[in-house]
Amino acid sequence: MFPRIPMLNYDVVVIGGGPAGMAAAIRAKELGLKVLLLDENDYLGGILPQCIHPGFGLHYFREELTGPEFASRLAKRLVELGVQYKTASRVLEITNYSDLEKVVIFTSPSGAYQAWTKAIIYTAGARERHAFEIGIIGDRVSGIYTAGEAQTLMDIYGILPGKDVVIVGSGDVGLIMARRFALEGAKVKAVIELMPYPGGLARNVMILRDFNIPLYLSHKVVEVRGKGRVERVKVMKVDENLREIPGSEFWIDADTLVVSAGLVPSVKKLKRIGVEIDPSTGGPVVNDRLETNVPGIFVAGNSLLINDLVDYVAEQGELAAEGAREFIENGGIESRKWVKVEKGENVRLLAPHYLSGDKDVYLYLRVAKPMENAELRIPEVGKEIKLPVVKPAEMLRLSLKAEEIKKAGETLTVEVVKV
């Protein structure tokens, strides 16, 4: 098909070298598959090498690690197994010729290649929302960063982006960046949160109290002003419908604005080959093998849905590898009657979307709003789990046995209600 481009042949090509991709490649190799891992960065690990704070690995490695330590353990295992990988490699195109015949065109420092493969595990992660995407207007000045950009400057290159900082978003990344700036001697003037409740885990919200950083709930940054560099930002209060309240605006003097307004799964290349996308997650619709509607295309990690724990990301990578092995050995996932998983009361998103009933599974879900004294219910199977508190920021991971799924019939509804 591409006669001038060298041809490579694999059982599985993994696209993305973060924790999901490395875990997938490791598991696929352990299962006896010939694997190629591609990543566009100069090093493996995704964003983990710049996440120098602890809090990783409690579930996956059974001990607390920093981001670089988590990545290093996966990379070490990858090398020990002899998994072939290429960094600084950019995927240009994915072509799906048939269920067991796909081509990944990519460039690398050594040239362009076409990798023919039976299955693809897509773990390309997510992108950050930027200032214009969340409606911030004003002067086009320096000093505006996404949280990831600021984190890279500080933790990879040792550069402090600014001294007087306003952070948009109280999710875990925004809160951790608030602490990082404070530890480096910068003044964090405020953390601005659109919702009426903090977006991060309780332990990270405590950071603001520890460093005496103001948190403005039900507020938004609407404008930036400055000459050459950020000088001040305008903040407004919002009502329960998230509409701006006239007359509530005030200005905060700052030289830096850090936007931590959430992540969006990177799925453009998947859309081009017809992969169905779930509007609520922003990622693909998948079955319990993490396979999309396009046979042989598997997705894991933040390309599937935005996770709050890297442990779950790595876990999903392994699940996708096991699904790919089954797909290759059987010449495709066997035809079966799938149980569709439906979102019930106070469930904002979930995955996977279809269950086979022939294996135990994990459901990953998030609630739409905080709730105390809650109960997670699946009426079709009589499952009820009491939860003291649920928050949109905290992903719920629900274990379902195969025999429970078989009781469900055609659909299975997950709901979170107040007791």
Give an overview of the whole structure.
With 419 residues, this protein is of the alpha/beta class. Helix 1 (19-30) links the parallel strand 1 (7-15) and strand 2 (35-38). The longest helix has 21 residues, at 310-330. 21% of the residues lie in helices and 35% in strands. Strands 1, 2, 5, 6, 7, 8 and 20 form a seven-stranded mixed beta sheet that branches. Strands 11-18-12-13-14 form a five-stranded parallel beta sheet. It has a five-stranded mixed beta sheet with strand order 23-21-28-25-26, with no helix packed on it.
Note poorly predicted spans.
none
Helix/sheet category:
alpha/beta
Q: How far apart are the first and last residues' alpha carbons, in Å? A: 60 Å
Tell how many strands the DSSP assignment holds. Answer: 28
Please estimate the helix content: 10-25%
Specify the number of helices. 8
Sheet-strand content, in percent, reads: 25-35%
| Residue-averaged pLDDT | 95
Biggest sheet features: 7 strands, mixed
